[in-house]
Amino acid sequence: MAYASPPANESGADKPREECGVFGIHGHADAAALIALGLHALQHRGQEAAGIVTFEDGRFFSHRGPGNIADNFGDESVIRGLQGNIGIGHNRYSTTGETLARNIQPLFADLASGGFAIAHNGNLTNALTIRRKLVADGCLFQSTTDTEVLIHLIATSRAESLVERMVAALGQVEGAYSLAALHNDTLIGVRDPHGIRPLVLGRLENSHVLASETCALDIIGASYVRDIAPGEMILIDSDGVRTAHPFTPQPHRFCVFEYIYFARPDSTIEGRNVYESRKRIGIELARETHIPADIVVPVPDSGVPAALGYAEQSGIPYELGIIRNHYVGRTFIEPTERIRHLGVKLKHNANNEVIRDKRVVLVDDSIVRGTTSTKIVEMVRAAGARSVHMRIASPPTANSCFYGVDTPDRSELFAAQNTVEEMARIIGVDSLAFLSIDGLYRAMGETGRDPDSPGYCDACFTGDYPVRLTDLSGRKADGQLSFMTRLA
Amino acid sequence: MAYASPPANESGADKPREECGVFGIHGHADAAALIALGLHALQHRGQEAAGIVTFEDGRFFSHRGPGNIADNFGDESVIRGLQGNIGIGHNRYSTTGETLARNIQPLFADLASGGFAIAHNGNLTNALTIRRKLVADGCLFQSTTDTEVLIHLIATSRAESLVERMVAALGQVEGAYSLAALHNDTLIGVRDPHGIRPLVLGRLENSHVLASETCALDIIGASYVRDIAPGEMILIDSDGVRTAHPFTPQPHRFCVFEYIYFARPDSTIEGRNVYESRKRIGIELARETHIPADIVVPVPDSGVPAALGYAEQSGIPYELGIIRNHYVGRTFIEPTERIRHLGVKLKHNANNEVIRDKRVVLVDDSIVRGTTSTKIVEMVRAAGARSVHMRIASPPTANSCFYGVDTPDRSELFAAQNTVEEMARIIGVDSLAFLSIDGLYRAMGETGRDPDSPGYCDACFTGDYPVRLTDLSGRKADGQLSFMTRLA
Amino acid sequence: MAYASPPANESGADKPREECGVFGIHGHADAAALIALGLHALQHRGQEAAGIVTFEDGRFFSHRGPGNIADNFGDESVIRGLQGNIGIGHNRYSTTGETLARNIQPLFADLASGGFAIAHNGNLTNALTIRRKLVADGCLFQSTTDTEVLIHLIATSRAESLVERMVAALGQVEGAYSLAALHNDTLIGVRDPHGIRPLVLGRLENSHVLASETCALDIIGASYVRDIAPGEMILIDSDGVRTAHPFTPQPHRFCVFEYIYFARPDSTIEGRNVYESRKRIGIELARETHIPADIVVPVPDSGVPAALGYAEQSGIPYELGIIRNHYVGRTFIEPTERIRHLGVKLKHNANNEVIRDKRVVLVDDSIVRGTTSTKIVEMVRAAGARSVHMRIASPPTANSCFYGVDTPDRSELFAAQNTVEEMARIIGVDSLAFLSIDGLYRAMGETGRDPDSPGYCDACFTGDYPVRLTDLSGRKADGQLSFMTRLA
Amino acid sequence: MAYASPPANESGADKPREECGVFGIHGHADAAALIALGLHALQHRGQEAAGIVTFEDGRFFSHRGPGNIADNFGDESVIRGLQGNIGIGHNRYSTTGETLARNIQPLFADLASGGFAIAHNGNLTNALTIRRKLVADGCLFQSTTDTEVLIHLIATSRAESLVERMVAALGQVEGAYSLAALHNDTLIGVRDPHGIRPLVLGRLENSHVLASETCALDIIGASYVRDIAPGEMILIDSDGVRTAHPFTPQPHRFCVFEYIYFARPDSTIEGRNVYESRKRIGIELARETHIPADIVVPVPDSGVPAALGYAEQSGIPYELGIIRNHYVGRTFIEPTERIRHLGVKLKHNANNEVIRDKRVVLVDDSIVRGTTSTKIVEMVRAAGARSVHMRIASPPTANSCFYGVDTPDRSELFAAQNTVEEMARIIGVDSLAFLSIDGLYRAMGETGRDPDSPGYCDACFTGDYPVRLTDLSGRKADGQLSFMTRLA
Fold first, then answer.
1. Are C225 and C291 in a shared domain?
2. Structural domain includes residue B6
3. Which structural domain, as residue segments, surrounds residue B52?
4. d(C-alpha D318, C-alpha D286), whole Å
5. What is the model's pLDDT at position D478?
6. What is the pLDDT of residue D347?
7. Phi, psi (degrees; rounded to nearest 5) at C407
8. Which stretch of DSSP H or E encloses residue A24?
């Protein structure tokens, strides 16, 4: 949702970060409140900014701001101000300052045919290339997001209806997109032809709902209808639901990392429950990497389901040997050098009594930079573990994502720069093992990965990118990013 | 600076309101601080929002927000963040909410040739007509200001240089504009061909300054160089100052109300000191409307200089019979009905001891709706005045302004709806008299008003509008304002 | 820490709430930062307000505010402002408004012998009785906390040294108290003679630490030295650590609910690890209340360790059938009646795929009002459970706590008003069972509860209150609370 | 209102600062709104903090905060929250931080007989001496104000009724005090026996009003009844107004500086209108210090009335040669050294066209440190004045005030450290003259100052202090201030 060319993960958090959740509803008197609830259930997909746009009687209502849903929509007067039976909302990650305010979605534009709002999960890989051309033609951009390219393409399209303009615009962009959009009293959902990001359709009484994940249907008591198909455009208005498939069909390549880490465990995507998928991954992991040990300890919370699967398959007892402090806020005191060496543990603490003198299998979902793993292992050793064996519930993450996930540049990816043996030595474990790529596909119900038709986007593991990276290839040549940072 | 077609003065303040002050500087290491100081001196021209944009090394820095200068730029870190030796700033009136944020100037755009920022004092009278056409062509507007029309005309112009594009754009707009703009390291000043709003050039050491009034030069110790001429465009960069006169010459029609009320008394505009002009107006007023009385009392602060002139000419002693409370903030408790009838006096209080048993000549600069005058007279009578004679230091304000002053619609203008006798009866005075239009011109050093070449814009008094009102004539036909209020 | 007489739990949260965490440190250059970190680890003991007081060179430094630790101490400049090598801190629950500000601890007083700050975990049961007498003598109270009574007793004591005055004051109060106090450069820790609340001593390099739980030592890398003994007063200054036992010895009655729910699982209290105690409770629970089922599902997060023990003992698989949303903030939209009936699930969501068609054993730590249990069971049933058997890892909570835990009045306690059969019917389960009181003591390593010397405070289960409830007995007679609410 | 012993005027503002305004009302349904309005009219007496306490049905309601009245009471919900028909309010100066919050008045205490709130204008000169004794007896102070001493004296008094306790307490304090207090449903007003600070009684319909000045009666339409007499205590409850004179009578010594500078020009104090008194002072000044000149220019706004009197008496024309910017906020950018030398004029600007080539008589009310005068003269000279003659409408301010006015220490008082000739040289004028002390008394209607019975407190001019300075004499001996700054 931000220009992907230079992958940036400046916070230093050692996890890939999903870059958005979207939600839309048509036909409910409490539209704004339900959107806020839906976004709350999707909070794990983006916590740094949020927005809602609603529509009623020719007017649009908008509230957007930095912070999470409760920060922005906890005040009843805000919800009341968002009038209407129809609206869309968005969660995102972002940076700070004025830049932030301009980039918070849903983006909104006054088109000649009426107002248009859009919320985007994914990332366009040729947005910079298109933007450069549009600016030369006199288009004025108000944000630095890739998403705004779509709006200008729609605005300047010569096609007649909004839908035709939108199809024409989407026909020019490359990359991943699951969209919820609003044009007057029509709610629009679109998923890119590869279906890289999720999008589902639900129903609540007489109203229709679009959401990134099924957990956002559950929170408001809506029933799940079906996943929006890759390449499908869905239009919802007072006449009901219409569907179209206006794009050239492409092989389906849903992001497998949604199953490994991003999606909420209680969501079900394309027929597969996320929690159960993770347990099966843990089972495969135990099959491939078994080692004698006394306890299986998850790195909470993301390693929990895989650790349960590992323990079940291996017969080694599952223990909560690491406790997570859930009160960690967005900011906290930056320790001075003097106290940093004390090994301050803001987020995790080892439970010494559980770990002391044990051979520990530590289970985590993935390793990005390796920094967190190093700290965790150090902590577990300090708690008296006899040996530490780390098991990772995915193959090594050796490639950056350009389809809507905030991963570091390859040069900072632990698995891109080190062999497994080097990684084991750096993070200080007695043994380290990753799930194989075929093991991952087996956990997903396949017999292994078919290189000709893998069925999932697994580029972060394999480097096999399903959509070309237009902006990236031109990036070094002309430094095209400079103009976007003009207004600091 | 906002679409003028529907004159709106929703605050109910019973004074016309100037709609902006602009300031620019080129070549000073403390550019941002000096702009903030200059805008502080221009605070009377707009107190509801403020912004500064600076430029350094290919990057623009911006800070804009609701409130006055001290609210927005009182924090040293804000000033420090506005890097560079060049920048522009703007004070404005505005409404509330998100709309406000989008409308606060300077507006900024990323053009293909670089960043462009603009600050506008005045109002374009065909902005809606142009905007409608631009939106149909696919232009996306991010504000509801008339000023943004200029930016899109510049962005979509086919002319080669920024200056040529800017001239082409200005050639299409009608109305009043004094502009300070920034294109990379060039500072640009423009005044419309009629010269309706003021703009002066100053010098501080080796740097050049643009400002709405000379008081903004004084505050930073800059020397006055000259007024920018009507129809002049001035370009300031590291090569120095260049000037051009690219527009068809027009009769000069500087706003005479700047002398009567808007400008600060210590400013000098086109060679005439404002305070002295007001005193001369008071002298003319006394000549035309003399009546025997005991004291001359100004309605503070705006009536003070004319009252001094009136007292000097009439020989009647000048007394501070009304005290103004300068702590009045932007908001205050809305009195309940129960206490409103007590005649609460937040802003003015009569000094009973001075007024009791006196025949009072009350001097004010103008009457807009008549509501404040009514309250003031009631207060002076309650203080025991024997008789109250109101003298107004301008002709009756019987027409709305469309050139950058926020006046009510004609239907709410006191003088448009009532004869002088009716006005006197409504506000409750023993006598009421206005300065004649010829008296006003005499005070300005003329022998009277020449209808063929009046020399000033005096449309609010005479209805003689120097620039045509394109948007206004089409307004009722198609309600073109609706689309602008879409995003509430 | 607030007057306990009228137990109040107005938030409606259906868990008892611990009312404070305390922390103190002596002799470390980063005292304030370490206190903030310690309080962060104790955040579960109080999240509605926090404060730190430090001392240096005759001056005290204080920062207190509503909200959690990161809200109040996330800004580095706040930490820097809290100068000195010695200080104390406090987490608490509280209500809103000005009242709140006055009540946030540490409380501070200027005594003739110097400044005195105090942080209190627990509750005094005769504070109102003493307060009434002190007010009659002319003492002015600035807060409505029970803790302030201690300060006035110290201030008006005729004993010579501060320590003697403090002992004299504590000799007059009844109830539960674990205190961290500061008098100039002396750090003081005290635990009431029954030892109802926890308090431990730790060591970090050359500095000494006091904390409510060991997890607050772990976060800063401090080592555990020992638990402060019931009735012990410990004095820490530049001469080292001195200890005293100035009170009449009493039977030890540590709060058993700390093991069941309050304390963090990674803490170890009086030699017993909390997580392992909870697992043993789960094992006892399975022994006593076994029933054939397909899965054991914890109510997260508090039911997790007992559910693991239950699953281990019963051989029934442990599954995460309920997912908790950790982004729940302190406030959120109050759903309208219209959407409340949709069964909005802000905090928990059932994982339908896991639960469908299963016989479910639901494990929770306790039931207070029963409202949450009812919603959880309804949600689990809606997810398709074949049957639902609730197992509670403690005896029925049938009595209010007056020793520092915020529980509802007896009239609102589910177990005080209903038989087990009635409770099962109301919350809608197929079966409901609680751990027996003897089972609880077995899990704590005893052979059962010895009524003559139970060893723990278990008044919430048994009604056997170890300290008399002076204020409570007089409460109805004279409504003595009224004067405290005078300043709304 | 703060401990006066070390006179402190840290802001560097070059005017003495009044330290408070008080207001009270009994028997009006809009009590809180009317108090807010009254305090707004008294805003000139204190702008850094404000508070209101009201009473209804046994409960007190309070809102206090830093900033001016509109900042704190502009929100209607705040006013609505202040329930009741009776209340008091206070404006004050203060410093920053937590200290501020604790010191904002009205102070409130829970006495055995009910709640008690107090607002104080003036300063007690033996407060530290008494405080030291009270602390030794075990009293806990929550603020660092002198006023709190009164509350403890009342609380610990053995007298029976609140009124008797209050009289006993006031009998022990020395200094200046005009008080508005609230004890349950009784409104109490007291003025010290010398009557140093003002206090008036007004009436609004059926309710009674206490206020520091009559302008606070005017704003709400209340009528003036009379001044509270020196040494008078007035009690207002539902039975009406009672009065008492419980203190030993003393010579009346009303602060003459209230007439010179503090009070609002539209107020009338003890029968003398402030504006007219200032004009008469200007007339005396012209008589005593006449010099040939072209124009009389006031330093706005405080010099305006005296300049009008001077012009009237001397026949030299009055001109607004200096313009004041009323938008100056409480904080603003701290100019860098680089731009400070530009002579930035945030507050005043010379009107060059008025001043150029003129012999100027500059009239100001007083000189404190001399810094502002120096800048003003420099500015007037830069504007082209031929000569500058400064005339001061009071005698030289050579002594600090200890009775409620914030003046610098003697070592910083310009007139205490320099002869008139030296002062003239330092501020750079051609001539400088002050009003004589006898001239001041003549302006007040006397024939001159009677040293045996001057009738006014004029200590700042004469050093003749009517009330002894107990704290001051002991100050150096034991540094008794230290304990008050303990909690930074």
1. no
2. no
3. 17-253
4. 13
5. 36
6. 86
7. -115, 155
8. strand A21-26
Interface test with C, best of A333, A344, A349, A358 (most C CBs within 10 A): A333
CA distance linking residue C212 with residue D135, whole number of Å: 32
Shared domain check, B379 and B241: no
**Among B94, B98, B96, B46, which residue's Cα sits nearest to residue B69?**
B46
Chain D residues with beta carbon closer than 8 angstroms to that of B326: 301, 326
What does the mean pLDDT of chain D come to?
90
Give the CATH number, domain containing residue B119: 3.60.20.10
Residue with tokens 């000023």: B147
Q: What is the pLDDT of residue A128?
A: 93
Measured CA angle at C344 (ends A323, A325), to 5 deg? 15
Nearest CB among B62, B101, B487 relative to A60 is that of: B487
Q: How do residues A364-401 score in pLDDT, each as one tens digit?
A: 999 999 998 999 999 999 999 999 999 999 999 999 99
- The answer to whether residues D246 and D361 belong to one domain is no
Q: Is residue B73 in a domain? A: yes
Q: Catalytic site residue C139?
A: no
Domain count, chain B: 2
In degrees and rounded to multiples of 5, residue B42 shows phi and psi of -100, 15
CB D146 within 8 A of CB D124: yes
More confident of the two residues B473 and D204: D204
Query: End-to-end CA distance of chain B, in Å?
Result: 19
CB D383 within 8 A of CB D349: no
| Residues from chain D contacting residue C488 (CB–CB below 8 Å) | 59-62
Q: Which residues of chain C have pLDDT under 70?
A: 1-14, 16-18, 94-100, 328-344, 473-488
Q: Do C304 and A325 touch (CB under 8 A)?
A: no
Catalytic: which of D20, D255, D457, D460? D20
- Do D221 and D292 lie in one domain? The reply is no
Is D152 among the domain residues? yes
Residues D308 and D428 in one domain: yes
Describe the crossing of helices A304-314 and A274-289 by its angle, rounded to 10 degrees. 50
pLDDT at B94: 55
C152 and D136: CB-CB below 8 Å?
no
Q: Kindly write down the DSSP assignment for every residue of B35-50, as one continuous string.
A: HHHHHHHTGGG--SEE
Q: In this complex, is the C-beta atom of A40 within 8 Å of any C-beta atom belonging to chain C?
A: yes
Residues of D with CB below 8 A from B52's CB? none
A220-272: pLDDT as tens digits: 999 999 999 999 999 999 999 999 999 999 999 999 999 999 999 999 999 99
CB–CB contact C108 D487 (8 Å): yes
Query: Helix, strand, coil proportions of chain B in percent (round to 5)?
Result: 35, 25, 40
The two structure tokens encoding residue D212:
């520091």
Tokens of residue B222, six digits: 């800059």
Cβ <8 Å between B486 and A141: no
CATH code, C430: 3.40.50.2020
Q: Among B49-63, B275-289, D329-343, D365-379, name the one with the lowest average pLDDT.
A: D329-343
Kindly identify which residue of chain A lies nearest to residue C337, measuring between CA atoms.
A30
Residues of chain B with Cβ-Cβ distance to A485 below 8 Å are 59
pLDDT digits (tens, 9 = 90+) for D257-306: 999 999 999 999 999 999 999 999 999 999 999 999 999 999 999 999 99
Residues C210, C294 share a domain: no
Q: Which of C101, C156, C486 sits opposite D138 (nearest CB)?
A: C156
Q: Does residue B312 carry a pLDDT above 50?
A: yes
Q: How confident is the model at residue D7, as a pLDDT?
A: 30
Q: Examine residue B472 and state whether it is found in any structural domain, yes or no.
A: no
Rounded to 5 degrees, φ, ψ at B174 are -120, 155
Q: Do chains A and B touch (3 or more CB pairs under 8 A)?
A: yes
Residue D4: pLDDT band with limits 50, 70, 90? very low
Same-domain pairing of A67 and A106: yes
Residue B67 tokens, joined: 């409130």
Residues A186 and A283 in one domain: no
